[in-house]
């Protein structure tokens, strides 16, 4: 078997092989674009071929920026389009592609890789751990009145803005600009490169699927939030709500919850700890469902990754990190002071022993080290080690990712 990088000439073969791996057929191109694979970067794709040249596997990465705790922005590889033909599964093709890909990412100087896992059992063995989570929030419209805030200030801020309804085709630049401002402040968020918007590649509101967009503007008329939505059979479904602060989110939520001729409102891609449920006058009006993992993280260079993010508690921690897929085992001293970290190899006794996948899960602050210790995945070598790790890895804001790739 040969694994080799692709060029633009390989696009059709790559797409056909990927779809065959999942038993699907490529969509028919439509005017205005919108094919999800149109944003593929062919110099970051690989094909696995048999000795006689038949393509049997695919994998690719996108070039994104990831927002870390402390609002640091770092380049990150977004793994996508991973598939193996049914005739060649369980023959080592996937493992060979993943090892090849991780080696290439390191050669590019990248310290982090992320993906959305189609199946939760697949990617842990390659060193990826779930790091952000998302859910749906459903509410019957007749019970979904929002209560007046008991703390003063929020109502006045929200009242200072306005909401305008536009069609998706009318507001592409607004969506791109607002999303970019949002993702730069939200830990766990990924960039949406301009070419994604230009090619309309992805899911709504990036894709050309017909949608209405409620655009919120501040008192100066500057767009600072939006909600992309559609109504079908009496249910209003919000694809995503992007807001630069909680007051803007509340204003957009109130707008869709008061939509006429709607019996139910569904908010997709809501952070698990979002306050919207607490804002209903009837607490039971909001039903949380579909709570699931979203962004999975893999560290490729542990010291670089740990020193790139911001920190909010001073302290020291010795991490004994096992990377069985790449056959590596290292021990690091993590020292945090005044929001910055230093991470160097050490021979000191460890505070925690953990798999590289578990380090990926705790990296953005969305999973507490003590949770994984209680689950039997992280070993704490002395009382208080897990609590110390919780305090160090905690963040001021929970990580969340909306972007589909």
Automatic annotation (TrEMBL):
Q: Which Gene3D superfamilies match?
A: 3.40.630.30, SCP2 sterol-binding domain
Q: Where are the transmembrane segments?
A: none
MF terms from GO for this chain are: aminoglycoside N-acetyltransferase activity
Residues that hold acetyl-CoA according to the record: 82-84, 90-95, 118-119
Q: Which CDD domains match?
A: NAT_SF (cd04301)
Where does the record place the N-acetyltransferase domain?
Answer: 1-152
Q: Which domain of life is it from?
A: Bacteria
Q: Which GO terms describe its biological process?
A: aminoglycoside antibiotic catabolic process
What Pfam families does the annotation carry?
Acetyltransf_17, Acetyltransf_9, SCP2_2
Keywords (alphabetical) are: Acyltransferase, Transferase
Where is the catalytic site?
A: 123 (proton donor), 405 (proton acceptor)
Q: Which NCBIfam families match?
A: PRK01346.1-4
How does it associate, per the subunit comment? Homohexamer; trimer of dimers.
Q: What is this protein called?
A: Putative acetyltransferase
What is the originating organism of this protein?
Streptomyces paradoxus
């Amino acid at each position: 078997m040969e694994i080799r990088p692709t060029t633009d000439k390989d696009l059709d073969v790559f797409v056909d092989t990927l779809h065959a791996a999942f038993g699907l057929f490529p969509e028919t191109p439509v005017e205005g674009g919108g094919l999800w694979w149109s944003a593929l970067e062919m110099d970051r794709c690989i094909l696995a071929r048999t000795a006689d040249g038949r393509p049997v596997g695919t994998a690719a990465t996108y070039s994104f920026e990831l927002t870390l705790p402390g609002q640091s922005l770092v380049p990150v590889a977004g793994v996508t389009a991973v598939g193996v033909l049914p005739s060649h599964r369980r023959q080592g093709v996937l493992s060979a592609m993943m090892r090849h890909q991780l080696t290439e990412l390191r050669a590019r100087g990248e310290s982090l890789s992320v993906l959305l896992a189609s199946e939760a059992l697949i990617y842990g063995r390659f060193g990826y751990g779930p790091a952000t989570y998302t859910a749906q929030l459903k509410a019957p419209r007749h019970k979904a009145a929002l209560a007046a805030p008991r703390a003063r200030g929020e109502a006045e801020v929200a009242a200072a803005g306005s909401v305008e309804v536009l069609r998706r085709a009318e507001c592409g630049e607004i969506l791109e600009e607002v999303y970019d401002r949002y993702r730069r402040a939200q830990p766990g968020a990924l960039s949406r490169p301009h070419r994604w918007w230009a090619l309309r590649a992805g899911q709504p509101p990036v894709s050309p699927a017909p949608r209405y967009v409620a655009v919120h503007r501040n008192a100066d008329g500057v767009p600072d939030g939006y909600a992309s939505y559609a109504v079908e059979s009496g249910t209003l479904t919000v694809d995503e709500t992007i807001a630069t602060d909680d007051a803007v989110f509340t204003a957009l939520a109130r707008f869709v919850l008061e939509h006429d001729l709607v019996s139910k409102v569904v908010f997709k891609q809501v952070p698990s700890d979002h306050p919207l449920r607490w804002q209903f006058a009837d607490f039971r009006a909001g039903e949380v469902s579909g709570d699931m993992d979203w962004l999975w993280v893999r560290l490729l260079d542990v010291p670089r990754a740990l020193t790139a993010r911001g920190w909010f508690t001073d302290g020291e921690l010795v991490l004994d990190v096992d990377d069985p897929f790449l056959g590596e085992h290292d021990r690091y001293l993590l020292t945090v002071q005044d929001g910055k970290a230093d991470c160097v190899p050490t021979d000191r006794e460890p505070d925690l022993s953990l798999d590289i996948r578990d380090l990926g899960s705790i990296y953005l602050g969305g999973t507490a080290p003590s949770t994984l210790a209680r689950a039997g995945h992280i070993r704490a070598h002395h009382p208080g080690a897990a609590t110390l790790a919780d305090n160090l890895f905690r963040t001021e804001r929970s990580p969340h990712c909306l972007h589909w790739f």
